[in-house]
Amino acid sequence: MKALIQRVRQARVDVAGETVGAIDQGLLAFVGVERGDDQARADKLLHRLLNYRVFSDEQDRMNRSLVDVAGGLLLVSQFTLAADTRSGLRPSFSSAAPPADGEALFDYLLMQARARHAPVASGRFGANMQVHLLNDGPVTFLLET
Predict the structure, then answer these.
(1) How far apart are CA 3 and CA 145, in angstroms?
(2) Which of 6, 12, 31, 145 has the most C-beta neighbours closer than 10 Å?
(3) DSSP secondary-structure letter at 58?
(4) 123 in the Ramachandran plot: left (φ > 0), alpha (ψ -120 to 50) or beta?
(5) 93 is an active site residue
(6) Does the predicted TM-score (pTM) go above 0.85?
(7) E strands of 1-145, at which residues?
(8) Is 80 part of the annotated catalytic residue set?
(9) Does 19 participate in catalysis according to the annotation?
(10) Of 80, 78, 120, which Cα lies nearest the Cα of 103?
């Protein structure tokens, strides 16, 4: 699994003009599910999302996690993160999980996140989403399990 995370002051996801998920300060995580990913990898990714130290402490060093700052987590499924872009001029999605498998694992990640942290919001799997964010920093990292 991969997650492209961005530290945000606020973020929201709209589908067909309706806001389906929104947070204030926290992390926006675009999540890509690859073939062979399983619940153990989702659990590991969630642990990293909640505990990765990307928020500033009193000395302005990145020493605080999402849990430490009680920030929001916005999960957005994004199969394009699983693309193979090493050659050519068109991405290959052969390494992406099939849609049903990707949705099941994304739903598992979302359920586990909601059980362990609040607030947690999400986009809508497979939907055409418009993501609005105010990146804080900017601070962006690619997490892989």
Answers:
(1) 9
(2) 31
(3) T
(4) beta
(5) no
(6) yes
(7) 2-15, 18-23, 26-32, 55-56, 62-64, 72-77, 120-122, 129-144
(8) yes
(9) no
(10) 78
